[in-house]
Amino acid sequence: MNITEFAKAAGVSVSAVSRYFNDGYLSEDKRLKIEAALESTGYMPSYSARTVRSKVTKLVGVILPKLSSESISRVTEGISEVLGAEGFELLLVNTANDYNREISSLELFRQNRVDGVILLASVFTDLHRSLLSKMRVPAIIVGQKLMGFNCVCHNDLGAAYSMTKLMLDKGAKVPAFIGANPEDNAAGRDRRLGFEKALAEAGIELDKSLCEIAKFSMESGYEKAGRIFTQKKKPDCIFCATDNIAAGVMLYCRENNIRIPDDVMIGAVGDSRMGRLLYVPLSSVHLHYKTAGIEGAKMLLNEMKGSSSVHRIMQLEYDIIERESTARL
Amino acid sequence: MNITEFAKAAGVSVSAVSRYFNDGYLSEDKRLKIEAALESTGYMPSYSARTVRSKVTKLVGVILPKLSSESISRVTEGISEVLGAEGFELLLVNTANDYNREISSLELFRQNRVDGVILLASVFTDLHRSLLSKMRVPAIIVGQKLMGFNCVCHNDLGAAYSMTKLMLDKGAKVPAFIGANPEDNAAGRDRRLGFEKALAEAGIELDKSLCEIAKFSMESGYEKAGRIFTQKKKPDCIFCATDNIAAGVMLYCRENNIRIPDDVMIGAVGDSRMGRLLYVPLSSVHLHYKTAGIEGAKMLLNEMKGSSSVHRIMQLEYDIIERESTARL
DNA sequence: ATAATATGTGATAACGGTTTCATATCGTAT
DNA sequence: ATACGATATGAAACCGTTATCACATATTAT
């Protein structure tokens, strides 16, 4: 059933029906007729036909590197909450960390498929930048700072600095580092810089043999812990870029009878739910992921209403969560 | 730029352009012209205009109760993998466990917004059934058995039975149960039935004071553990419907100096990543969530090709993962 | 009293594609 | 030589909406 048939059934004009769904001028009389016919026929207008003419899709594209990650799903939850309330649906693209899929979904959204885009990528190339600036709909980047674009991000440097400082203040002298891909400016580069800043302040020289780059997984953390603990120099604290990495490190410690925090303190960033439940509760830095999603979505809504043309970068702060893994007396 | 302008720029007819994108008869000569023009103009056809005429959206609606759950995001990952490869995009609706949003998104998809629907709901009412049967596009239910519909589900009863039996075989005499909402036929009812079946087989009578219904969260598991351990009768094993619940129980045990598995064994269903990392590694039942997503998506693809009209229920089996929490000698 | 504005109305063009149709050419089997 | 199917083509109808337009009436301001 289309709008013409429905209008006939309701005894009103096609224009009246369209106005009913679009808040135009409409008499109470017609409004009632339409509502009655709606009840009996179950008619609903076609989104695509509406889009062809009005260019409005009521769809927001969300590009993310994976789904099964606590931080990402928290961000998405925030996004979904805000946009859902405004009647937007989410077109979700899981790129599975595949560069090509990331690019091709940006291509996809360059057309009139969505009204706006939220991008959660970890590594940005020139091609990303170029596609983003060619984008004809507003785009928001969550979790990274990218000059010239609208971003909501975390204070990754500060988070890493504070956690490292916490461990050094507790008396650690030989810090180790297990970080993430430095091409990821947030979780990789900035957390590294924060770690280094704390060391510099404490006048401790960084030992390269105690630095590793891991993937975002427990397994990878486990493996890198193995490398570090087989060095001549033994660390008395380890800063991990993510909770998952820290969990892997802990697993290694348990299996090798390395006591936490007595032999080695462990601190991380991310504050996942799991952290509290580990065999030694993990000290971590809470980042406001859901808030990032909420703020990103709000920013996008603003952009979609009237393009402000001024690009903003919003940085969210953090909370230190101190637990037993850094509880040395 | 629309198809008419583009056709002019490429020096071919509008029909030729349409055929290029839809695999119709087209000479090599025209194909090359179009590809060249595509390169220089960056033209892309509008999805919505295509949909108006052809009714094909290349969109699949996915309705889920929440995003930040490991099991759900694994299912979604499977779905996204299969459908992405076939050129489908996912229209994700997070209902936040809100009955009304669940219903309204089914309403939404009843129109020509998507080519198919995958539903991950936990509780089914008559209204769900009625909306699902009125649905004009194929729908698949993942995680639940619903007669008369296409489903991919887990053997929840068997999983709970096997885990409970494992603990009874190890010598447990006083089993306790922390389950989920019984209106959830899979995680609630079936896991309860599996637990009861194992007890019946072992000739053990169920003590109602040692049975609790928790929410799907660690906090809720913690609270219910408190209730159970303050009963006169002390359990020597606890079956938990989910890993999250079990994690809460463990937290309670640690804080109250209840030894696992010496004082009480703990077994659960779900096999989340966290289980391995708990202070006592958790025995759990592995359910093939990602496979469920993959199979559900494949089933949907089949339905979308040619509607088979026969409804299938596919049940996936499980693996017992035995760890220290049930390691009594 | 009149102008200006807000409200209400239906016919029809427009949106940007695909599908249908009528027609033409080619290679190959009869 | 003829018939047939596969390939190729462009014009025009069509999909289901919204936007525009021209026009009518009610309400308020001058």
Structure overview:
2 copies of one chain form a homodimer. Chain A is 46% helix and 17% strand. Chain A has helices at residues 3-10, 14-22, 28-41, 47-54, 70-85, 99-110, 126-134, 156-169, 185-202, 218-229, 243-255, 289-305, and strands spanning 59-64, 89-94, 116-119, 139-142, 150-154, 175-179, 211-213, 237-240, 265-269, 283-287, 313-316, 318-321. In chain A, the strands form 2 sheets. The first copy, chain A, has a 6-stranded parallel β-sheet, with helices on both faces. In chain A, helix 6 (99-110) packs parallel to helix 7 (126-134). The longest helix of chain A is centred in the middle third of the chain and has 18 residues, at 185-202. The N and C termini of chain A lie far apart (74 Å). Chain A binds a DNA duplex (30 and 30 nucleotides) through residues 2-4, 12-19, 21-22, 24-27, 30, 45-55.
Main sheet record of chain A: 6 strands, parallel
Mean pLDDT of chain A: 94
Spans where pLDDT lies below 50 across 5 or more residues of chain A:
none
Largest interface: A-B, 48 and 48 residues
What structural category characterises the helix and strand content of chain A? alpha/beta
Helical percentage of chain A: 40-55%
Oligomeric state, counting identical vs distinct chains: homodimer
Q: In order across it, which strands form the biggest sheet of chain A? A: 2-1-3-4-5-11
The CATH topology of the largest domain in chain A, please? Rossmann fold
Percent strand of chain A: 15-25%
CATH superfamily of the largest domain in chain A: Response regulator
